[in-house]
Amino acid sequence: MKKMNRQNEIKQLIERRAVERQEDLVTLLAEVGYNVTQATVSRDIKELKLIKVPTPDGGYRYSLPTRKTENEDSQFRQSIQNYLQILKQSERFVSLTMHPGHGPAVAMLTNRLDFPEVFTAIGDDATVLVVCKSDEAAKQFVGRLEKMRLKNVTRVDD
């Protein structure tokens, strides 16, 4: 628990202040009760995947990595366009039949992209079950998929 708390503190520190060096983090952590070595901070930086970004004054500071939403959005779109075979909706449930091997990735991307219509998605080798927040939300999600210019997809209505 202490490690997780310390790493959360590091995230807060680098969001509030321009922290340039590991030694600065050691000092700042000590001020809030975490007496750690530079080696510990170095491991935390690696685990948190912190990056250094330029500052307006020409220096550098630690920052959290940017989320790869654009890349994930592109992966989702390509997977839907290239591997979706059958699209079905029944009430608030949407079933996606994928080419074998693509179900888990599409389910993961559906959850990561945090679509407003979606409650959750689960997938096996070739099927993704998307549970939407309502019947209307399911219709909206299906509409979103259909806007991706689906090729050779069988649409099955309830």
UniProtKB/TrEMBL annotation:
The protein's annotated pathway: Amino-acid biosynthesis; L-arginine biosynthesis [regulation]
**Matches recorded under Gene3D superfamilies:** 3.30.1360.40, Winged helix-like DNA-binding domain superfamily/Winged helix DNA-binding domain
Query: This protein's superkingdom?
Result: Bacteria
What are the alphabetically sorted keywords of the record? Amino-acid biosynthesis, Arginine biosynthesis, Cytoplasm, DNA-binding, Repressor, Transcription, Transcription regulation
Q: Which SUPFAM superfamilies match?
A: C-terminal domain of arginine repressor (SSF55252), Winged helix' DNA-binding domain (SSF46785)
Per the UniProt record, which residue ranges are transmembrane? none
What InterPro entries does the record point to?
Answer: Arg_repress (IPR001669), Arg_repress_C (IPR020899), Arg_repress_C_sf (IPR036251), Arg_repress_DNA-bd (IPR020900), WH-like_DNA-bd_sf (IPR036388), WH_DNA-bd_sf (IPR036390)
- List the subcellular locations: Cytoplasm
UniProt domain Arginine repressor DNA-binding: residue ranges: 1-67
The segment(s) forming the Arginine repressor C-terminal domain are 87-146
The question of whether Amino-acid biosynthesis is a record keyword is answered with: yes
Identify its protein family: Belongs to the ArgR family.
Function summary = Regulates arginine biosynthesis genes.
Name recorded for this polypeptide: Arginine repressor
Q: What is the organism field in this record?
A: Limosilactobacillus alvi
What taxonomic classification does the UniProt entry list for its organism? Bacteria, Bacillati, Bacillota, Bacilli, Lactobacillales
